[in-house]
Specification:
Oligomer: homodimer
Shape of chain A: elongated
Number of strands of chain A: 22
Strand content of chain A: 5-15%
Organism (chains A, B): Promicromonospora soli
InterPro entries (chains A, B): Phosphoketolase, THDP-binding, Transketo_C/PFOR_II, Xul5P/Fru6P_PKetolase, Xul5P/Fru6P_PKetolase_C, Xul5P/Fru6P_PKetolase_CS, Xul5P/Fru6P_PKetolase_N
Distance between the termini of chain A: 46 Å
GO molecular function (chains A, B): aldehyde-lyase activity; magnesium ion binding
Family (chains A, B): Belongs to the XFP family.
Enzyme class (chains A, B): lyase
């Protein structure tokens, strides 16, 4: 990637009027389009004879014909016309390809504007380069058939459909000079995430943010069906777009065979100028202080699927039908008939007029593109790492809660984090945002509203209900996990920072989006010209152990399992047990690059265990022995190890340790807390993994380990099963046994409670067993008592609810339990 | 649940004109609404003194205040009015509660119409019953705060939002006499799945299907924000609904304080009559043969959030704001001020006018409801198992492919399945549908188009492009996994059958929907009055090992992992290795109840291994030794076990077994194939699990097992880690190492290929090891050769691509390889 400086910010948003294009200019646009189409078809079909300088033979055709043609010519047409307009207006623009299948088109366009050869030096601008360009496409060891990280200018991978507009808006936020031309496929438009993402326009600030120009590519067909939006009346489609808050401009091209191509180009160029002038006018009004939501223009681009391809194949209508979706000539290598159609099709673009003798595209054609970083394929916003600046992070230690003794104070950990985030926002006013599905306050980050608001550009009613809402703000909330994740991804991919807060119980909604983003990160790690971007940070603050308001109806802790399936170099999972560890963890997350960081931290009031100094040490190690909680003798192995990961499991393990020290004072108990889940893995499997000797030093290789875990227990087995001592591990975790409305009832339902953990210890330490049948029975009784109390009173039994770690109790007996940071409403 | 017969199908769709309701009838509607609201508020707050027959004290208030008030009064209002209209028109109707938070409202309504006490005999219709009704709500051991399986009349669980309309349409398909009143929350309306589900109206046949009446509950607020649709202009909202294909009717209620309540009721009743008459007219036109898509009416129901609750609390506007979302009086037990507001609020419904001396709601109020199965809470469609009929299934053995020897024929397995499904459709013309996101043909089920079509009621262009599309058809395709899964769920929950075909690579899109449905099934297993419904069947036919067209950009095989996290009694995972086993498996799936069956079967041409008789035996066992593939000596333990699960892994294991029998003829190899993945688990953990002795009989407890698996390898470890021999297991599977465009290249990338499996055997069988360094080297060389060939030719090396099992080769040498069932285009 060239590191050409970003164009001066005074460029852009020029109103030029509708240009009267000279025939030569129209010819140039048409030539670019033919060249792009030729290069696209060549990629799909040709192994050799790239410029058709000899008659096409079967051997020139690839043995496996893969890829998609249908959407490609439309994408190429738009790219050509945008080039003309960008050059004229010097308008910084990136191009989002909703129809990701159109990979060959975007590769062809990047090749034509020169970017491709700049970033891939072996794809030269000559016959040999064209041959390599063709051959590599959807070929073993080559490039994907979809728009991909390998495609210069892209921040939006093909594959799963539905996120083009969300990504586009994410890219536009805080980029006031950037236009994002977002092509939406009419197939993609049927997906849920895309259908709601049109409403993104209610969240745009017309002065501070860039402009998204949605272009609905209405080519009419999916794999095997017409599209819904192509089969409703034009008035209905118009109403739909107006209802979404847009002013639609309709363009029909390619259907009227009597229209000369240059006239089609002239009409579209005029329409594009009209649209861009309207955008410039909106921008001018915004610059003048009118920040109200305009009806942003959008284009309905109705052209035939497979436009310019063979009208019929084997007697069946192909262009303008779903039959053009993929590879229309499946037998081009096998039958002379198909081969001949292919040759005719390729020659219809008149390659002899497009390439010089060396196989270089004629400069008068490539000259359509703007220069340098104004080229859409070279725009640095589409390689966000180029623009990424470190966040200015306030010292998180200053936000520490006071922990006079373990358990000696109580916090809602995310509320503490919120105070630090407030200053993160203050210090980084234009490159950091918080995203969430209507849950930022519910997840206890409301301190941020001291310095910012929720950005909202729909109607206002009045201050008595419209709290913390403004036309500019750092918090982005809409009730769609898809939407907010898509926005955040677009924001990160263009070189900014952010986090997403959500309920753990519903984060599975974006499982597939996580997959796509993780894949993007993994692939970009191997693309030298792609610079690292900020990590995608989750804060899951309403977790499955405290579903008080939502007992029974919420989901599971399996997002962690889903995440851990991805490559180790991409994913991190943190389970900070209290407020100070959460602060330390999040500071680390916001400094990191190219990861997906999943942080799970409950929002309910909970004891703090570590003062800041200890918390930093603990988080730096990622896991460690809590000596103060155990009863070991220095230099001797413990009798049993109590492990814990997650805030609720940690609380129960400490309560169990407390029981054990009182009931079995001679038992040597070690307590190990895990913050960084990946530390449990083998060093050979994850960069954060422990070596065997480190691992055995913590957990021993031969003592029983009773491990209380936040999620499904088998994940802990998975992470540890290669360890020597794994046979001695006994893991308690989430069991899908149902949920309930009081915290201790919930842990009891899943056998993760303190009493059950003590029973586990008795059952697993050989020296206890039947000797402690009495204690075992008392633990059973305590459970039954707690269950009965809860059923009777609707709340947890006081001996459980009010339990504190003994050191904190001593403190309380002497003076007072450390101050509780205010707790507020329990929203959902 | 009463088993009252379904009302005669001649009921319904009556046009009555706008009723002139007598004041007494309006009073009755208002009294029902007050009673429902009183019972709702009581559930949220009261532990005792349910009818306020004494002054309210703090002790009467629950210690933990949980639940949601905001949406409830609107839901109650609609329920009351629908009662009136249903009774008048004898219109079979079910009620879908999009705002699932409104649990108390639906429980209250079911209590008022008598259903609740019928299904829960301890919730009696007297003071004690009301007390128990209140106490159980969101209480440990009680009922959820959301609409749930426990709620009579519901097929739509609260919790995750977004599927109310999809479920509603699923319920309406093939139920021509049923109206589905679907209340859509304006929060829910922001989700992606809901935003696209409005387009469901393009898939309705107005004669053969029922009617969905969407009611957008525009109460203006979410947890902490206004809703988007409440903050766009009315013309914009009108356009949006028209653009979605609806004729919107707007109702505003509760904002004009000068309007008497009865006038509000009169206006809504009139509007509802107008809407229902319009529906009746559409139905009459359809009965007369006009099947074209009408603009179906829908209602925008704009009323204040928390309507009828306290206007202000603590000096802040509450009713008509987001502050009414959850529990408006959080301190009702803690402060006299809140307690007094609560009492005033409860008394505002004048309970003394609603209940008789025994605490029974006055019969003149409950008389508003229709009778028997016409009550929305008692409608048997909302307890689909009551209506479920077994499918008539043709004998799948008749569709068997001929397998003269293992590997002796080739099929695209789903194409074979499609022929059987064709007759399933023929035999079950009105209670079986196939759902998919535009992939039914791509997944090779196109034989079904011999007997049916894709149902489509948007515009038609002409037969040259609109193949297999009609206003009535058994195949439902829209490019939204959310939509088609939601439709299928609604169809199943109302007592019908179906399956969903999708690409494995994208099925993570519905992870959270699977979660919700699995939870529903699990909970209903414990609700005696809920009858079992047909299983939700997936057919994932474009799997991760054959991403030819989509190399690099598609996702992973992790859906299986996600599914296996759920309770064993709910989930089944099948990996049939060929066509006959797929037939046998699917026959089993379509006969089953209350499961989620995940079947993964590749769509590419692949060898058949088992004739039908053997396939049935194999599938009945779920796994077994393939003696013909091994080289054991009877009565002796094998030296090594090659295990496989999945079609591609099975092929590679057989190819490895072939190499081993040629290269190491003395090695005793056993081949075990697994169809039913759950068989690997312990019998104590899954109903399908093997006992240890069965397991050891297959895999031994001390011989090396090299296991080739379709998905992430650690799942096999998870399923088997408690087995005695697990330390000897070595699993190969999907490694996230990237994807490519040729099949063998793909398996090599993941070290699952035949050569690597042979190396695994050499490395793990003690008697081989260094003695076979030569063979090991030749395997390495073969891999390098295959890789180089692929990179050079873009296709797999012939020795791999054309390999067949030796018995088939013998057959070929003698005569011919068995006929290949036609293979067609490779669509995506």
């Amino acid at each position: 990637m060239t590191t050409t400086a970003v164009p001066d910010s005074t460029t852009g948003w020029r109103a030029t009027g509708v240009a009267e294009l000279a025939p030569a200019e129209l010819e140039r646009i048409h030539a670019w389009w033919r060249a792009a189409n030729f290069l696209s078809v060549g990629q799909i079909y040709l192994l050799d004879n790239p410029l058709l300088r000899e008659p096409l033979t079967r051997d020139h055709v690839k043995p496996r014909l893969l890829g998609h043609w249908g959407t490609t010519p439309g994408l190429n047409f738009l790219y050509a016309h945008l080039n003309r307009a960008i050059k004229e207006r010097q308008q910084k623009t990136i191009y989002i390809t909703g129809p990701g299948h159109g990979g060959p088109g975007l590769v062809a366009s990047a090749y034509l504007d020169g970017t491709y050869s700049e970033v891939y030096s072996d794809i030269t601008e000559d016959t040999e380069g064209v041959k390599r360009l063709f051959r590599q496409f959807s070929f073993p060891g080559g490039i994907p058939s979809h728009v991909a990280p390998e495609t210069p200018g892209s921040i939006h991978e093909g594959g799963e459909l539905g996120y083009s507009l969300s990504h586009a808006y994410g890219a536009a936020f805080d980029n006031p000079d950037l236009m994002v031309a977002a092509v939406v496929g009419d197939g993609e438009a049927e997906t849920g995430p895309l259908a709601t993402s049109w409403h993104s326009n209610k969240f745009v600030n017309p002065a501070q943010d860039g402009v998204v120009l949605p272009i609905l590519h209405l080519n009419g067909y999916k794999i095997a069906n017409p599209t819904v939006l192509a089969r409703i009346s034009r008035p209905e489609l118009n109403d739909l777009m107006v209802g979404y808050g847009h002013k639609p401009y309709f363009f029909d091209g390619g259907y009227d065979e009597s229209e000369p191509p240059l006239e089609t180009h002239r009409r579209f160029a005029a329409l594009l100028d009209e649209v861009l002038d309207e955008i410039a006018a909106i921008k001018a009004r915004a610059a003048g202080g009118d920040l109200s939501r305009p009806m942003w223009p959008m284009i309905v681009f109705r052209t035939p699927k497979g436009w310019s391809g063979p009208a019929e194949i084997d007697g069946k209508k192909t262009t303008g039908s779903w039959r053009a979706h993929q590879v229309p000539l499946a037998s081009a290598r096998d039958t002379d008939e198909h081969l001949s159609v292919l040759e005719k099709w390729l020659r219809s673009y008149r390659p002899e007029e497009l390439f010089d003798a060396d196989g270089r595209v004629l400069p008068e054609i490539t000259g359509l593109a703007p220069e340098g970083a104004l080229r859409m394929s070279a725009n640095p916003h589409a390689n966000g790492g180029l623009l990424l600046k470190d966040l200015r992070l306030p010292d998180f230690r200053r936000y520490a809660v006071d922990v006079p003794a373990p358990g000696g104070s109580t916090s809602e950990a995310p509320r503490v984090l919120g105070q630090w985030l407030t200053d993160v926002i203050r210090l980084n006013p234009d490159n950091f945002r918080i995203f969430g599905p209507d849950e930022t306050a519910s997840n206890r980050l409301q301190a941020v509203y001291d310095v910012t608001d929720k950005q909202w550009n729909a109607e206002y009613i009045g201050p008595e209900v419209d709290e913390h809402m403004a036309r500019a703000g750092r918090v982005m909330e809409m009730l769609s996990e898809h939407q907010v994740q898509g926005w955040l991804e677009g924001y990160l991919l263009t070189g900014r920072h952010g986090l997403l807060t959500s309920y753990e119980a519903f984060i599975h909604i974006v499982d597939s989006m996580f997959n796509q983003h993780a894949k993007w990160l993994k692939v970009t790690n191997d693309i030298p010209w792609r610079r690292p971007i900020a990590s995608l940070n989750y804060l899951l603050s309403s977790h499955v152990w405290r579903q008080d308001h939502n007992g029974f109806s919420h989901q599971d802790p399996g997002f962690i399992d889903h995440v851990v399936n991805k490559k180790a170099e991409i994913v991190r999972v943190y389970l900070p047990p209290d407020a100070n560890t959460l602060l330390s963890t999040y500071d680390h997350c916001l400094r990191s690059r190219q990861y997906v960081n999943v942080v799970v931290a409950g929002k309910q009031p909970a004891p703090n265990f570590l003062d800041m100094e200890t918390a930093v040490e603990h988080c730096t190690r990622g896991l460690g022995i809590w000596e103060w909680a155990g009863t070991e003798t220095a230099g001797e192995k413990p009798d049993v190890v109590l492990g814990c990961a997650g805030d609720v499991p940690t609380l129960e393990v400490l309560a169990a340790a407390d029981i054990l020290r009182r009931e079995l004072p001679d038992l040597k108990v070690r307590v190990v807390n895990v913050v960084d889940l990946m530390r449990l893995q083998d060093a050979t499997e994850h960069p954060h993994g422990l070596t065997d000797s480190e691992f055995n030093g913590l957990f021993t290789s031969d003592r029983p380990v009773v491990f209380a875990y936040h999620g499904y227990p088998w994940l802990i087995h998975r992470l540890t099963y290669r360890r020597a001592g794994h046979g001695h591990w006994h893991v308690r975790g989430y069991k899908e046994e149902g949920t309930t409305t009081t915290p201790f009832d919930m842990v009891m339902l899943n056998d993760l409670d303190r009493y059950h953990l003590v029973i586990d210890v008795i059952d697993r330490v050989p020296s206890l067993g039947s000797a402690q049948a009495g204690l075992r029975q008392r633990m059973q009784d305590a459970r039954l008592r707690a269950r009965a109390w809860t059923r009777e009173h609707g709340d947890d039994i006081p001996e459980v609810r009010d339990w504190v770690w003994p050191d904190a109790q001593d403190l309380a007996d002497g003076d007072q339990v450390g101050a509780t940071l205010g707790t507020g409403g329990d929203n959902e």
